[in-house]
Design brief:
The chain is an alpha/beta fold. Helix content is 28%, strand content 19%. The strands form 6 sheets. A 7-stranded mixed beta barrel has the order 21-22-23-24-27-26-25, surrounded by 4 helices. It has a 6-stranded mixed sheet with strand order 7-6-3-4-5-20. A 5-stranded parallel sheet has the order 17-16-15-18-19, covered by helices on one side. The protein binds alpha-methylisocitric acid and iron/sulfur cluster. Alpha-methylisocitric acid binds at residues 37-38, 65, 119-121, 134, 361, 488, 536-538.
């Protein structure tokens, strides 16, 4: 039996462990990336582990999330990241240079290499045939230090694309179609491998839109083959030498094959407040729109922007719509400006925002009260836009523009426009002046790391005891995202390097009094439903509960990155043996978890509750057991382990 694409790259990078699905594999990591909202923690952890120079082939620190500097906090954090990166051998991408995933695709991604990043959309690089994973900051810190990245070997699903997209139907609609088929839980424990004749028709930026939104499926990663399209993109970026052809073997086997006929797709839209609530755009025809945003790491390539500009040229957006455009990188913005397309965008009445995450993470441009916002982004979780009662829909740039022009949700095919004639350039404009190289190793000692007062220490994990007695301070339902656990937005993000302050906002979306209650309780349990911790990779969703004294989370099931972050923080992620036991637990009751140390090995523990004994399951690898016993990965690494 031949190898699929993902397994080929895994095989080349396997340090130890097994490639059997469900078992643990340790992978050598070639490249890492961080962004600023998770980066401060990752570098604090790197320093706390006593590591010196990075040992990867390439590590990059991007500033793209916290670019709204309404106080000293973000600016201080940028300075910290810039200096710590310079000292330890990490490239620095200056604020304004662009969104990490877009810039990484343009300037650094290499087919066949491995990449981990402290951001859940790191698999965007799979559009270039790279095997990329989103991870917590601690895992990235370990990889920067030369340590392996541990994954539970996923099963691989093949998506076989047939035919070609029709005009005004886009890569975003393919992303939404797979979300409709698989749901936000459907990718958990899987790698999604894209292929087929239809895949050959998609350019790298289109492929990247698709691999980007694999994160919304909960997938471990997503990947496309590396072929002529990949070569054309790398050539246009002046990086032909990075090309390597990569295809799955003809007789490769997959857990499941899903066929999508591109020629039968139509424009799709995800409704509030989950990316998998997908319907056709035409079924919502006529819904009034208040705001439209084009950008984010999903749809901010030059290709996307040129299409939007072509549709806006010579037209005016509706006076009732407020529209923003944020190009994904400085390369995209300068090229838009040079060819005149930027004027077409601005003359239409749209506003230009900087090349950063911006509204996607609630960093400005929040919608009006109860507003309907159409966004080309990847997440529409409740409250994420910064307006609690806004209704956020996810769409393609084409649907976004069509709706901005008419003021209501509009299928772009109904505008009667001619097919867009937009092609990628044969050569992109190359200017890497906003990418600052690290200091050479022999000069690293001279670099002073600058820390502002916003940078506080990391909470310490506690070594595991055999019994934990604590109250159930919070019970929540299914599909709790890390945006619920640790919200983002312009008011909260500046405290990403200040855990005590950040903790005041923990779970505020669900229960404003949780933070105070947990802190007063000293130690506590949380109970959740299915797919607990989906969404962002932010390890703050584990570090803050750790600070607040949470010792274990009991849920029906967990999302991959968050589960790893809980273990790294020394918090036990446990699941119900019988999911119906979820109903027998009541917020506020006292619980006793016993037989913990033995249970780590046997995979079973008992929770003594008011309603009786409840069996809990866990399946930790030997390494995870040791990490939990030590009270987290930081302690474990300090004890000399890797
Ligand atoms: C997101 O899209 O939610 C973020 C902000 O990029 C996060 C990282 C973070 O919370 O800092 C992610 O996707 O991992
Ligand atoms: Fe930034 Fe949004 Fe992409 Fe997250 S999803 S990296 S916030 S653009």
């Amino acid at each position: 039996m031949g190898y699929n694409l993902a397994d080929k790259i895994i095989k080349e990078h396997l340090v130890s462990g097994s490639m059997k699905p469900g078992e643990e594999a340790a992978l050598r990591i070639d490249q890492t990336l961080t962004q600023d909202a998770t980066g401060t923690m990752a570098y604090l952890e790197f320093e706390a582990m006593g590591l010196d120079r990075v040992k990867t082939e390439l590590s990059v620190a991007y500033i793209d999330h916290n670019t709204l500097q309404s106080g000293f906090e973000n600016a201080d954090d940028h300075r910290y990241i810039q200096t710590v990166a310079k000292k330890h051998g990490v490239w620095f991408s200056r604020p304004g240079n662009g969104i990490c995933h877009q810039v990484h695709l343009e300037r650094f991604g290499v087919p066949g290499k491995t990449l981990i990043g402290s951001d859940s959309h790191t698999p965007t690089a799979g559009g270039l045939g790279m095997l990329a994973f989103g991870a917590g900051g601690l895992d990235v810190a370990v990889a920067m230090g030369g340590g392996a990245y541990y994954i539970t070997m996923p099963r691989v699903i093949k998506v076989e694309l047939k035919g070609a997209l029709r005009p005004f139907v886009t890569a975003k609609d393919i992303s939404l179609e797979i979300l409709r088929i698989l749901s936000v839980k459907g990718g958990v424990g899987k790698i999604i491998e894209w292929g087929g004749e239809g895949a050959k028709t998609l350019t790298v930026p289109e492929r990247a839109t698709i691999t980007n939104m694999g994160a919304e499926l909960g997938a471990t990663s997503s990947i496309f083959p590396s072929d002529e399209m990949t070569l054309a993109f790398l050539k246009a970026q002046g990086r032909e030498k990075d090309f390597r052809k990569l295809q799955p073997d003809a007789d490769a086997e997959y857990e499941r094959v899903i066929e999508i006929d591109l020629s039968s797709l139509e424009p799709l839209i995800a409704c509030p407040h989950m990316p998998d609530r997908v319907v056709t755009v035409k079924s919502l025809k006529g819904t009034k729109v208040d705001q439209v945003c084009i950008g984010s790491c999903t749809n901010s390539s030059l290709y996307d922007m040129l299409k939007a500009a072509a549709m806006l040229k010579g037209r005016q957006i509706s006076p009732d719509v407020s529209m923003s455009v944020s190009p994904g990188s400085r390369q995209v913005l300068t090229m838009l400006s040079d060819c005149g397309a930027l004027s077409d965008i601005l003359s239409s009445g749209a506003r230009l925002l900087e090349c950063a995450c911006g509204p996607c993470i609630g960093m400005g441009f929040s919608p009006n009260s109860g507003g309907v916002s159409l966004r080309t982004f990847n997440r529409n979780f409740r409250g994420r836009s910064g307006t609690a009662d806004a209704k956020v829909y996810l769409v393609s740039p084409e649907t976004a523009v069509a709706s901005a022009l008419t003021g209501e949700i509009t299928d772009p095919r109904e505008l009667g426009m001619e097919k867009l004639d937009v092609k990628l350039p044969a050569a992109f404009k190359l200017d890497d002046s906003a990418l600052l190289p690290p200091a050479p190793a022999d000069k690293a000692g001279e670099v002073e790391v600058l820390r502002g007062p916003n940078i506080k220490s990391i909470p310490e994990g506690k070594a595991l005891t055999d019994t934990i007695e604590a109250g159930l301070t919070l019970k929540v339902g299914d599909n709790i995202t890390t945006d619920h656990i640790m919200p983002a937005g312009a008011k909260i993000l500046p405290y990403r390097s200040n855990i005590p302050k950040l903790s005041e906002f923990c779970f505020a979306v669900c229960d404003e009094s949780f933070s105070k209650r947990a802190l007063e309780a000293g130690q506590s349990f949380i109970v959740g439903g299915a797919n607990y911790g989906q969404g962002s990779s932010r390890e703050h969703a584990a570090l803050v509960p750790l600070y607040l004294g949470v010792r274990a989370v009991v849920a029906k099931s967990f999302a991959r990155i968050h589960q790893a972050n809980l273990i790294n923080a020394g918090i036990l992620p446990l699941s119900f043996k019988d999911p119906e036991d979820y109903d027998r637990l009541e917020q506020g009751e006292k619980l006793v978890l016993s037989g913990i140390l033995e249970g780590l090995e046997t995979g079973e523990m008992t929770l003594h509750a008011k309603a009786g004994d409840i069996k809990l399951l866990c399946s930790f690898t030997r390494r995870q057991q040791e990490i939990l016993k030590a009270g987290g990965l930081l302690n474990y690494t300090r004890e000399g382990n890797k």
